[in-house]
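> run fold Cochlin
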Amino acid sequence: SLASTAITCFTRGLDLRKGTEDVLCPANCPLWQFYVFGDGVYASLSSICGAAIHSGVITNAGGAVRVQTLPGRENYPAVNANGIQSQVLSRWASSFSVTAGTENTALEAVGRSVSTARPSTAKRPKKTLDKKAGNKDCKADIAFLIDGSYNIGQRRFNLQKNFVGKVAVMLGIGTEGPHVGVVQASEHPKIEFYLKNFTAAKEVLFAIKELGFRGGNSNTGKALKHTAQKFFSLENGARKGIPKIIVVFLDGWPSDDLEEAGIVAREFGVNVFIVSVAKPTTEELGMVQDIGFVDKAVCRNNGFFSYQMPTWFGTTKYVKPLVQKLCSHEQMLCSKTCYNSVNIGFLIDGSSSVGESNFRLVLEFVSNVAKAFEISDIGSKVAAVQFTYDQRTEFSFTDHVTKEKVLSAIRNIRYMSGGTATGDAISFTTRNVFGPVKDGPNKNFLVVLTDGQSYDDVRGPAAAAQKAGITVFSVGVAWAPLDDLKDMASEPRESHTFFTREFTGLEQMVPDIIRGICKDFLDSKQ
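> ok
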């Protein structure tokens, strides 16, 4: 049927029911209220009329649009076109495209010829893309944590805004370059805008210019912790595999403690820089609760992450050296965390003494450990091997690259039942499961779960595994002899050996294993 459905400014692709639908967009929709994700192909979360204006099919005067439903995809890009800034979305389950629609049969021919006679709309955003792409060599998602406290005051707050604006411009913000957002620290932190809100330098500049001074105590610690935890979510525009950076601007000194915030930021894989301006003078030091505040908060206390400016006046010469630091991808030592940079292999005892119901408890334990990690093609990976006298690779590190798939593969492991040859199983896993990833970027861990005495030697195979760069945790249940467990475990053995009488006790060990992996990971990075 050619009857067009009248829709509102806010009707989304996912609100339509048919594969192809003709709709009528109203006039004078408020452009700034549109949510549009993508370019040419739009995530079905997008406003239909917004997408139609963005792609040049209609103007703000409204009109007929034909909507075609398309499958979902990954990486919808952000492009500014025809007064609408579309946003990045990393993946969505369905999409749509828009072409000029027809209001009725009589108009069909005209409508068609108009839509083809237009300067080809497909090409137009392409040109904007290159200018919009930004500096592709500088990969960074940056939060500027600006000082909005009484310490800095209104006058210097404006100078701070100028400086941040110059840094933003020199970074080369763009869809494929750096993305930035701003958080203001004062009594309470306020996220002024997110990474996803703007992808062009001039919009960012405008947004910075509009920021109002809040005043209050300089609770930088509170703001830093809030930013590390809340700012870099995927839905707020953080991009997978791109360094997360917080640049903290501090006039004088903070009113609260930065140490805990620094720890939280490192745990979340965020690289913290501190730009201290007009640092405390000798006569002010008595008022500073912790003189070492910079060292406590920065990513690494190696000089690279701290930056000093004597005053807010005449700061232009400080812009470029700061930008160069922020674009040094390989120096971002805090991007890798234990959660996103480990391979964990589970070696699971399937011998007859375990029994079907206890075997389920073992799988639950494995799931709960795996669940804590950020499993992805560029993140952490999980593998599992079941053993009796024989070994069976249930899945390898490359088989499943999402957490859901890993957890479902663990649930589907079938209990083998048989004897116990733990030594052989360790050798098998070292060779076949860890062998293919031994030159990869991730740190390797093996968690051995067994409920009894092994028929073969475990000491030799475990030493060989450790020599191959694998850290071994041994987890014993019921009749597993403590000597075997200690012989398998990495040094220091006490903190790598776990034992419980009952299978139900495995659950309490989950946080300890996760903490152990993270501790080893951090120690290896120091």
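Residues 104-129 have pLDDT under 50 and may be disordered.
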